[in-house]
Design brief:
The chain has 291 residues and is an alpha/beta fold. It has twelve helices and eight strands. The longest helix is centred in the middle third of the chain and has 29 residues. It is elongated.
Length: 291
């Protein structure tokens, strides 16, 4: 008999299946359930136990990992089986808003279960491998009790007791990721408008992506201190570049949503009196509604 903690995984898309394989490879007995039952076939063949119902899946183990589209899917799946929820630790690795995450914590608590929020920061093929890490938030004691098992999925990054924190870190990272990917696609379209292949542009784009990291520490200090010295690169100067990008994109016949959005930040900062400040002063426009 294994001395490793057993776990239930609900949701067997590519990410859920990758999690099951990671648990099995590290010797954790794993029970699975998926709405489309056939999706469990491969992991069952690899050694997972198949639960016939959600109630059976919940009853099988204290630790229940969800890999679903969003938090509404949690309600849809667990709601009809809520009688089996008392005593369960539900580790929800699904994406949603921080507000809905806090609501889910309350919903589970009302039914005798406890939520640990997670956000896994790698694609399915990297789950459980060296680059993998996962943001968590919720009860520190609960996290500590189950951290050795959760560590199987990747490096654990506990962010605090507020249930929303893991979700906020997750969405913040995806903001950087998705916006960067869109920026590359727009840049590739700009280059290809002159008949240059996207492949030829890759070394220069990669160099740009790699160099951006050097600006982050100083930018974060400016943000936290609320001071934006513009002696090296002012908003007016960089805003002019943003305007030129819009013009170049229009000349190339490209969609202008992304460059116009960037230009709008610079325009807003100039209108707010930050023209001679650093580009980091755009934060003061972006944070509207916050103190």
């Amino acid at each position: 008999m294994s001395d490793k903690t057993s776990v239930t995984v609900i949701g067997l898309g590519p990410m859920g299946q990758a999690m099951v394989h990671a648990f099995l490879e590290q010797g954790h007995p794993t029970t699975v359930w998926n709405r489309t039952a056939s999706r469990a076939d491969e992991v069952v063949a690899a050694g997972a136990g198949r639960a016939e119902t959600v109630k059976d899946a919940l009853a099988a183990n204290e630790l229940v990992v969800l890999s679903l589209t969003d938090y509404q899917a949690m309600y849809d799946i667990l709601g009809p089986a809520e009688a089996a929820l008392p005593g369960r630790i539900v580790v929800n690795l699904s994406s949603d808003t921080p507000g809905r995450t806090r609501e889910a914590a309350a919903w589970l608590a009302e039914r005798g279960a406890e939520l640990l929020v997670g956000g896994i920061m790698v694609p399915a093929p990297l789950v459980g491998k060296e680059p993998s890490y996962v943001f968590y938030s919720g009860s520190r004691a609960t996290f500590d009790a189950h951290e050795p098992t959760l560590r199987v999925l990747g490096r654990t990054e506990y962010r605090g007791e507020d249930f929303a924190l893991a979700q906020l870190y997750y969405q913040a990272q995806l903001t950087v990721f998705l916006t960067s990917l869109s920026a590359f696609l727009h840049a590739a379209a700009l280059i290809k408008s002159a008949g240059v292949s996207a492949e030829a542009f890759v070394p220069f784009a990669a160099d740009n992506f790699n160099s951006i990291g050097m600006y982050l520490a100083d930018a974060a200090r400016n943000i936290d201190e609320g001071s934006h010295p513009g002696d090296l690169a002012s908003v007016v100067m960089m805003g002019a570049t943003a305007d030129h990008i819009v013009g170049a994109s229009a000349d190339a016949g490209l969609d202008l949503v992304l460059p116009k959005a960037v230009k709008a930040h610079y325009d807003g900062a100039i209108a707010a009196g930050h023209g001679t400040d650093s580009w980091t002063s755009l934060y003061e426009v972006i944070k509207v509604g916050q103190p």
